[in-house]
Amino acid sequence: xxxxxxxxxxxxxxxxxDKVLGKGGMAIVYAAFDQKRSSPVALKVLxxxxxxxxxxxxxxxxxxxxxxxxxxxxxxxxxxxxxxxxEAFIAMELAQGTDxxxxxxxxxxxxxxxxxxxxxxxxxxxxxxxxKGIVHRDxxxxxxxxxxxxxxxxxxxxxxxxxxxxxxxx
Length: 170
Description:
Layout: E1 10-11, E2 15-23, E3 27-34, E4 39-46, H1 54-68, E5 78-84, E6 87-93, E7 98-99, H2 100-106, H3 112-131, E8 134-135, E9 144-148, E10 156-160, E11 167-168
């Protein structure tokens, strides 16, 4: 089935797919509703043609495993992951915001105080990952999401996502 063809369907008997949020080289990310948890999620689904490659599936599972061990306010939380037949997925918190690349395109140069706040939060997220032996290895503006901060009205929070090529250290 074509990736966009999942919209409107139920994935692995559990996730109602609402819309496409983004497409990458390995996966499609959807806004979905997790019927098991009764909550909205971002659902990253490995492209079907890639599920036939055991190494790619292991890499995808490594991302899920690495990210699922991180609980930090500046990391997008992994809620669940799995492989069912030819379907591999990662269910994550549905964080609504703008990636840093788009934010920079809209406001360049970015105000210095905002840059410092965003970078401090990204560094905090990476520090937490490193403390767990996880190295991101693909940090770029597209993998930093700026979302409203629930603790500071009018503020924003940076969230690091996509641990797709993360390295887990022993």
